[in-house]
Recover the amino acids of this structure.
């Protein structure tokens, strides 16, 4: 994009994202029915209401004696309530016995309350019973403490009521959510399919990772970084292969990829003029085409973004460190939206750590700087050592534990300044 | 474990972990060779040194002209250096041309430096060339800025030198690490197998998740929570099934599970006396047997821990909320060690968020309280609302966004107090 004087104009990260989201109302990803074993981390495509009560009967939450609470009113250590043992509640079965006035039944945690009982006295508050095994020494117990109605009992439907909305559409399933679904008997659910993100590697010097190199060749590095980042963000990375930097070749594979993909990434394209070619291809394929060409971010300035047929296409810089930064800033927010994940600031957050910057780091105003840092413990403090190598070196990312961002209008970070490190 | 007066003694979380780690030097998990596609998140079982240089040749990091830097010394806008175009460097090929004094060659980002060249002048600092396409308008260029030796060049071996230690044993592979390995041509590596963690569900009232319930029965909830937590922590959860609360039955399946597993979990066991039975089984199977029986933590107090044949066995309380807390506190630290993950405070950290407590929460001294909280945004602030339901309710975990810990010697948290929330 050029300004009125024909100069290339870069946009801010904020503006770039705004342009993408304004021009793209992502098509809904189709849903798919999956079994309970595959629940974890998938995103619900429908609200889930409970088909039944959980639990379906009143259960004891302690080991003790099921009682009619009114039989224990006023009980105290000096003045126990005496109750006859009516029997024992067997686990997993409906009790055949009934609690009549003046009686109690042995019950374990999770046992079903018998008719006539409305509370459970803990074994610790009963005399003449072995506190460890609930074995009885007599046919009568002494209750030393009153039980309120409902005490030590989970009522039928107290955890979940039939019809309750348990989990909302757009929720990502955590271990406890899968457990809750198992509890109410739901073993199949509808989730969103993982959005396909196509990775197109370009460059006449690029060869597959398994190749022996001839002079002038390098192996395809960036598609491995991208595939991992895409999978971590909930997408389905599909490597389309390595393609020559020619208009017809790239245009063809971009158009083909657009058919099945939710997002298309063009990585590399380092030969002269290729950056413009990528922008031209996005423009030529459809509307609105290229939305920005260059972003005020470092590393990652040559980033290209566009939309065709409601699908985002990104042209990524070739430098490895730029790949990570551009992914986190531009692609991940779009991808997350496409996964169907509901807006929630507290879910899927990246781990962070607070540290002190170990060295002065300069930055230019009007540019967002993403500094790779390695963390170091000094006593109880954590210090962040900036890794200042060229962004073309993959090892700068390997040595880093995370990234510190210097915002657009900040001129740098001083030694000792407190920073938030977004951990890899 | 009982003290000298025969009372049951609970231990602190710290002490419980100390007992486990003191009595267990985990056997090394076997390693397995995997292909590059499965790298992500696996843990290296060997150091990785590079078999070659990366890159294998000096590469340009910009679009411009490869030059002999001494030809540009003193160049300035008013006083350019004039250089003849010797030709163009093709991507992915060894240049056949050579840079002689007074000449330059067109080169793109990633191109191989020709003989005689030791620097690259950016296209932006060259006249008589189209800055966007590097097309030339003449056979001569004017260089407006001097290039230092090595400027805009990545030297052969600058990213990685042959023999360099790239990644250490015990490192968990992130996307950028897979990329670096691809770059140096490593497409197969040795990683630790995921430790098998057996889950034994016990209780006569427990039926599989897919079952229709009879009165008194509940579905197996906890094994789903545990399986998800184990997988997230890098383990391989194996559900052994649901077993009756009988000594011979449980002992048999524990012994069988110990054969293949690195950790054995006994979940549930809610009938009266079962907790003691679990401790007895661990003691009867081998040495040192049960190490603690009860921990000063809420929820999770009835937690049992032991070691047999150098393998940890845990008896877990039946309440769903206790499962999550006990897993995070006792099982996860042991499991992480068994995965082979090296000690690094900054890797595999859970996401956290700082919030203000929305209500007073009381706690007893001498007990570590794990409070489930739901987060709420109020303007720019985040508030943590404690979820105070019974720990037997799975929905208290479903409603929660994370957990706030009240340490052993703290008597509670006041409304408005700043807390750190460990997010699920």
């Amino acid at each position: 994009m050029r300004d009125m004087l024909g100069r290339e104009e870069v946009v801010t990260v904020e503006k770039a994202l705004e342009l993408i989201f304004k021009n793209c109302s992502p098509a809904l990803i189709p849903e798919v029915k999956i079994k309970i074993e595959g629940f974890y981390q998938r995103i619900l495509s429908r609200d889930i209401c409970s088909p039944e009560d959980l639990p379906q009967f009143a259960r004891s939450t302690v080991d003790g004696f099921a009682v009619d609470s009114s039989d224990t009113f006023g009980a105290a250590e000096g003045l126990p309530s005496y109750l006859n043992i009516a029997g024992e509640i067997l686990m997993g079965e409906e009790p055949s016995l009934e609690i009549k006035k003046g009686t109690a039944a042995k019950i374990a945690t999770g046992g079903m309350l018998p008719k006539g009982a409305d509370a459970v006295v803990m074994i610790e508050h009963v005399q003449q019973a072995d506190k460890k095994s609930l074995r009885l020494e007599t046919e009568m117990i002494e209750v030393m403490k009153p039980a309120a109605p409902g005490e030590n009992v989970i009522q039928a439907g107290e955890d979940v009521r039939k019809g309750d909305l348990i989990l909302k559409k757009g929720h990502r399933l955590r271990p406890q959510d899968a457990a809750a679904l198992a509890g109410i008997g739901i073993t199949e659910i509808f989730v969103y399919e993982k959005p396909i993100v196509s990775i197109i590697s370009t460059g006449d010097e690029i060869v597959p990772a398994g190749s022996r190199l001839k002079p002038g060749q390098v192996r395809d590095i960036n598609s491995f970084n991208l595939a991992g980042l895409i999978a971590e963000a909930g997408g389905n990375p599909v490597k389309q292969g390595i393609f020559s930097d020619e208009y017809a070749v790239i245009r063809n594979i971009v158009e083909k990829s657009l058919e099945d993909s939710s997002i298309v990434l063009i990585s590399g394209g380092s030969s002269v003029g290729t950056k413009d070619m990528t922008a031209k291809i996005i423009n030529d394929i459809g509307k609105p085409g290229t939305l920005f060409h260059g972003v005020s971010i470092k590393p990652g300035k040559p980033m290209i973004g566009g939309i065709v047929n409601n699908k985002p296409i990104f042209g990524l810089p070739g430098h490895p460190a730029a790949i990570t930064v551009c992914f986190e800033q531009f692609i991940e927010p779009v991808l997350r939206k496409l996964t169907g994940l509901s807006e929630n600031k507290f879910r899927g957050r990246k781990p962070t750590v607070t540290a002190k910057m170990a060295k002065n780091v300069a930055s230019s105003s009007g540019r967002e700087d993403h500094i790779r840092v390695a963390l170091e413990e000094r006593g109880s403090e954590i210090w962040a050592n900036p890794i200042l190598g060229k962004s073309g070196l993959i090892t700068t990312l390997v040595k880093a534990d995370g990234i510190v961002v210097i915002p657009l209008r900040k001129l740098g970070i001083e030694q000792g300044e407190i920073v938030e490190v977004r951990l890899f």
In short: Residues 62 and 109 of chain B are 4 Å apart (CA to CA). Confidence is low (pLDDT under 50) at residues 3-7 of chain B. Chain B touches chain A through 106 residues (CB under 8 Å).
